Amino acid sequence: MARAVDKRRREFTTVRLCARTALAGLGIAPGPILRGTRGAPIWPEGIVGSMTHCDGYRAAAVARNTAVASVGIDAEPHAPLPTGVEKLVALPEERRTLDRLSTSHPAVAWDRLLFSAKESTYKTWFPLTGRWLDFSDAVITPDPEDGTFTCALNVPGPVVGGRRIDRFTGHWRTLTHDGAAYVATAIVVPGTGRPHLTDGG
């Protein structure tokens, strides 16, 4: 148990080092990145960002909120989900899509990709709304050919620049880092030239 806690603490520390490095690229002075509501990171004024960490992999993405309204990234081990998890996170139509893709493109762990895409979706959604988003509130459809996915929202989406968003478009890829395989997903909501104000509490 102590080793597990130490491992989690190291991940927490190193992913924030990634974030501070990314912020330095924008000319932002280093400082603590605290946890806010529901564990979401609190970014410096005028900045949006996202972090992800899993065993052996950390990443962070940041941008100015005039250029990007929100960003969500996630990385997971490129391996099938544990038994029973797919039924908890995937809607019936998503499971049908996974079955089809697993037959046509068996080299990709599509269930894990779907899970990662839903994580990126939530990380994108929450800063825009301040509200919880359940796994069943978004339908993920991956494109196996061009490395993209769409996320159709089953609930009213956020309003950005006076326009309500009912779907996100993201990118996915598989990659190898230090000999381990991962699947990574990312969503970027373009900015409007003005800071976005959260439309929900």
TrEMBL record:
GO terms for molecular function: holo-[acyl-carrier-protein] synthase activity; magnesium ion binding. The keyword Transferase applies. Gene3D superfamilies: 4'-phosphopantetheinyl transferase domain (3.90.470.20). It comes from the Bacteria. One of its GO terms (cellular component) is plasma membrane. Residues 70-147 form the 4'-phosphopantetheinyl transferase domain. Keywords: Magnesium, Metal-binding, Transferase. Its cofactor is Mg(2+). This is 4'-phosphopantetheinyl transferase EntD.
